[in-house]
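quick q for whoever's on today - can somebody do inverse folding on this one?? i tried earlier but teh output was garbage lol. tokens:
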């Protein structure tokens, strides 16, 4: 079964991931990862990479094997630019939270040398976000990135910044644990005075985002801006005992998100049939 279906509740709040969901930070993220991976040897983190049998997919195991051997990403991964920094660290270190924290620390130190110019991932992104606001949906933005980077990026994008589009912004160093822990989402909802529930949608482009949404008990919307086909989406969200978390909906772009929200406002239920359109959260 493919995971192309509607969520189950009308949104009152939509929280967005930042990089590769709303914005393109160009090559800065991959430059910083390139800086980090050779340092895994000196820091001892290379010894803490997951075992092949603990990887979710064969492709994940190949990524870990390549990094272990070459201390860099495979050129194809960088060429495609379809995987986030957080997902890379999740694939490399699995449940080793201490190793991931150290990897994120190394990343921040390197990203400081590379970050700067950014642009919207979709040319009409601001317009679509404003349209969601006009429908009465409250918006927030989340990022595993440190606040020093997010402050600059959100204030400079489009030349005038997007801060006014969001009622809350939560960053990786604002909470005890980054995604896939639910801390960022829970803090954002606390900032808004809203309890977790299906009436909050979280839109993100990575498997990490889906896990965080599910752990926070909110609706997960997978942003498929990378253009994964249906078979691949089913593979990265297998719904198994070890990897149970699946998105509640999949969208290709912000116009599709806007259309989906309007369906709910017009009274369409989560099974795609006419309904009350009331929020379960």
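ok took a stab at it. sequence:
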């Amino acid at each position: 079964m493919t995971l192309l279906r509607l969520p189950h509740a009308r949104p009152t709040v939509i929280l967005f991931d930042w990089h590769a969901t709303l914005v393109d930070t160009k090559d800065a993220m991959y430059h910083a990862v390139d800086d980090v991976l050779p340092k895994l040897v000196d820091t001892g983190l290379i010894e803490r990479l997951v075992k092949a049998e603990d990887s979710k997919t064969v492709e994940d195991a190949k990524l870990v094997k390549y990094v272990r051997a070459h201390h860099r990403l495979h050129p194809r991964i960088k060429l495609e630019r379809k995987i986030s920094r957080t997902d890379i660290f999740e694939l490399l270190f699995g449940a080793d939270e201490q190793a991931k924290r150290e990897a994120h620390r190394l990343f921040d130190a390197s990203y400081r040398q590379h970050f700067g110019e950014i642009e919207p991932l979709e040319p009409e992104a601001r317009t679509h976000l404003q349209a969601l606001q006009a429908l009465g949906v409250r918006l927030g933005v989340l990022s595993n990135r440190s606040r020093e980077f997010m402050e600059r990026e959100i204030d400079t994008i489009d030349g005038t910044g997007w801060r006014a589009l969001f009622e809350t912004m939560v960053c990786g160093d604002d909470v005890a644990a980054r995604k896939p822990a639910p801390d960022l989402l829970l803090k954002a909802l606390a900032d808004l005075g809203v309890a977790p529930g299906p009436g909050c949608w979280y839109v993100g482009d990575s498997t990490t985002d889906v896990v965080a949404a599910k752990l926070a008990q909110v609706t997960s919307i997978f942003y498929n801006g990378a253009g994964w086909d249906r078979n691949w989406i089913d593979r990265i969200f297998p719904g198994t005992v070890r990897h149970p978390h699946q998105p509640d909906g999949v969208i290709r772009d912000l116009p599709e998100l806007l259309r989906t929200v309007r369906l709910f406002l017009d009274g369409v239920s989560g099974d795609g049939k006419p309904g009350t359109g009331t929020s379960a959260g």
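fwiw Residues 269 and 275 are 5 Å apart (CA to CA). also DSSP finds eleven helices and eight strands in the chain. so keep that in mind when u check it
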